[in-house]
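My current task is to audit a protein record that another person submitted. I need someone to confirm that the token line plausibly describes how this chain folds. Take the sequence as given and treat only the tokens as open to question. This is what I was given:
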Amino acid sequence: MPQIRTLDLTDDATATAMHRIGRAAYAVEAELIGFYGIPALGESLAEMRAQPLNWIGAMSGDDSLDGFLAWEEQADRGVSVDRLCVDPGRFRRGVASLLLRHALTEMFPGRLVEVTTGAANAPAVTLYERLGFTRGPDFSPVPGLTMASFGRAAIGTSWEGRRGSSGQG
């Protein structure tokens, strides 16, 4: 079972592994949704490092990175998941579920969490629904791309798709 840890993007090996995994994962999503203009897909290593995000990763027993989750804190104490990427060689091994469950229970329990993904990305849509996210309105930020929004409300509140988060799942 991979171990979850905070990722340090100032470490060259870590940042390079994250960049490689992110590009590979977004290439798979691009195929699934038929849209190749996903911003993170064309992002340079320097641009990725400059993102104002918090990062955690799932590390294998051999200390290799299996996947990562990045999020942004919102002014209303909510959380916007910006990316959830798994090395395609590790797909279907529960890495994305492990990362998201850890974040929901250990890092932001009881907080509103929002995420978006390509509406045609069936594996991501299934993951978010399985983990208790409610699907909000779909939207098209650019012609040819339909995004699905999801939210998981804090206890005692409801989520109604208030923000048009720009994150990719």
